[in-house]
């Protein structure tokens, strides 16, 4: 039975990844921060792991618990948007900067050495949930500055992970889920979370059609870095 690790599975896109992989018969390791979320994921059939990605102690605990697992897919999903700025006139505070950059950039950097060896035996896929808003080539507006900067940096993490892990057989993708109706995306977003995740699962599941080192949207369309 194939297995997936979803980092940040309590709600939104991460929860839907857990649901869909479980429905497909996969073993799912799902991380959460709160007890109600642990119970929710457990009742769905997931193996639950407590992880605040900002907590190095919990990260070490998760690495220890997963030691020896053979993973087919890891989804680095946990993320925050930060301040909803409309231009560059109100730069982030130190606290805002730290929260967003530590969650969206530092945590993925710390996951790579943990999950790389767990994915290599199955020649698995590391899917990093990026955003089109992190594309430097496409940047044409200045709203959401801190989030954009963090996702551009996260894209570099994905590229470097590809460079290092592809010789071990691990495929790394940076994925844009679309503008999705979740707490982060809001109610006016144009993509249902079920469709976004179904599309990303299709992309993740077909290494011949979508090779590693790519930045792709949930329909498999290539995006400019
Ligand atoms: N929705 C969109 O339109 C959209 C578009 C482009 C990219 N994305 C990306 O897709 C990913 C998921 O987005 P979403 O819309 O599902 O967001 P969401 O509804 O706001 O959910 C965010 C998830 O991240 C987890 N998380 C945040 N900080 C964490 C931490 N310190 N430790 C552990 N988990 C943490 C949350 O856990 P808690 O429940 O414990 O807070 C929750 O599971 C993000 O990386 C986001 O940047 C989303």
TrEMBL record:
In terms of InterPro entries, this protein maps to:
NAD(P)-bd_dom_sf (IPR036291), SDR_enzymes (IPR052184), SDR_fam (IPR002347)
Entry's CDD domains?
carb_red_sniffer_like_SDR_c
Protein name as annotated: SDR family oxidoreductase
Looking up Gene3D superfamilies in the UniProt record yields: NAD(P)-binding Rossmann-like Domain
NCBIfam families named in the record: PRK06953.1
Cite the Pfam families for this sequence.
adh_short
Q: Which organism is it from?
A: Zeimonas arvi
Q: What is the lineage of its organism?
A: Bacteria, Pseudomonadati, Pseudomonadota, Betaproteobacteria, Burkholderiales
Q: Where are the transmembrane segments?
A: none
Q: Which domain of life is it from?
A: Bacteria
- Give the residue range of the signal peptide: none
**GO MF annotation terms:** oxidoreductase activity, acting on the CH-OH group of donors, NAD or NADP as acceptor
């Amino acid at each position: 039975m194939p297995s997936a690790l979803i980092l940040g599975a309590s709600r939104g896109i991460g929860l839907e990844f857990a649901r869909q992989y479980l429905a497909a018969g996969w073993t799912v390791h799902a991380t959460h921060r709160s007890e109600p979320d642990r119970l929710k994921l457990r009742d769905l059939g997931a193996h639950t792991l407590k992880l605040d990605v900002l907590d190095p102690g919990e990260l070490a605990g998760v690495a220890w618990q997963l030691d020896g697992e053979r993973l087919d897919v890891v989804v680095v999903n946990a993320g925050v948007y930060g301040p909803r700025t409309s231009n560059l006139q109100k730069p982030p505070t130190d606290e805002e900067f730290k929260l967003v950059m530590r969650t969206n950039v530092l945590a993925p950097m710390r996951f790579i050495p943990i999950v790389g060896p767990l994915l290599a035996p199955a020649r698995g896929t590391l899917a990093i949930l990026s955003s089109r808003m992190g594309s430097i080539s496409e940047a044409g507006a200045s709203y959401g500055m801190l989030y954009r900067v963090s996702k551009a940096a996260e894209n570099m993490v994905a590229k470097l992970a590809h460079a290092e892990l592809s010789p071990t057989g691990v495929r790394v993708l940076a994925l844009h889920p679309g503008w999705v109706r979740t707490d982060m995306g809001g109610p006016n977003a144009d993509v249902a979370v079920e469709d976004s995740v179904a599309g990303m699962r299709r992309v993740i599941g077909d290494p011949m059609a979508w090779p590693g080192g790519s930045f792709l949207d949930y329909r498999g369309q290539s995006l400019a870095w």
